[in-house]
Description:
Layout: H1 7-47, E1 78-79, E2 85-88, E3 96-102, H2 106-124, E4 129-135, H3 137-142, H4 146-160, H5 162-174, H6 188-195, H7 204-212, H8 216-226, E5 237-240, E6 243-245, H9 257-267
Parallel strand pairs: 3-4
Antiparallel strand pairs: 1-2, 2-4, 3-5, 5-6
Helix pairs in contact: 4-5, 4-7, 4-8
Amino acid sequence: MSNGKTPAQRTARDQLLRRQQAQQERVRTRRRVFVAGAVAAALLAGSGVGYALGAKSSGSSGRDSSSADGPLVIPAHATGADGTVITYGKADAKDTVHVYEDMRCPFCEKFETALGPTLAAMADAGKVKIEFHMAAFLDKSLGGKGSKTALAALGAALNESPLKFKQFHDVLYAAQPKDETTDTYGSTATLLDLAGKVDGLRSPSFNKAVKEGTYLPWAQKVADAFYDTPDVSGTPAVKVNDTRIEVIGPGRNAISPQDFTAKVDAALHQG
C-alpha cells in the first residue's frame, strides 16, 4: 500500500525519521554521561571524597576506533611509553604528580583554575614534577573533536618546549567554554587565536602543525593510553607518586590550595 504518499513524500518522511532518531540517540548519549556523573557525585559526595566527571566507558571502551590520518609524529619533549606523557618540571625531582585531564572537562578547568598555580609552583621549585596524561573521551561521549584537536595543538606547543605546552594548556583552560557540549576547540582557527596569548608560540612551524593536524595521530595515541590506567576512571584525577588524592570536593568545587598542598605533602617520599 502507498498510503496516499508519493515516493518523494515517503523519502522525505524517512529522512526526517532518521534525523529524529539520530537526535534522540545524541540526547540519550548525553543523558548516560550525566547520569553516570550524577551517580558518582552522589556516592562520592556522601563519602567526602570528591567528583570526577565522565567515566572511561559509556556503554563501550571509549576508544576511538578510527585513527587520525597521517603519519605518527611524536612531539619533541614528549615522555613516557611511546611518548604519550607530557612532563613539566625538573627531571631530577624525586616525586611525581600524575594529572589526568580532558581539555573539554569542566571539572578539570575547576582544578586547574583553583590548584594549577599551586602545583606549578611546586614543580618550578623542584619539589615535584608533573606528568600530564590527557584523555579525549568527551569527544566520543558528547560529539565533536575539540578534546583531540586541542590536544594535537598542545602537542605542537610541546614540540616547542614543555614551558610553552604548560602556558598554552593554562590559556586553553582559562578560555574553556562553560558548556562542555560546545565544541569550541574543534576549530583550529580558535586554537591559533588563543595561542597568540602565549609569548613566542605562534611560530611558522607551530602554525603549520596546528593547521595541518600534524600531531593528531599522536593525540589519538595519547588519548588511547588514558584507558590503560587501571585505577583512573574519569577526569580530573590526580596521583602523587602512587597515592590517589581527591581534588574535587563534595560541593563539586576544587578543594582549597591549603588542603591540596597538605595532601601532596602527605604523599611525598620521605627523606
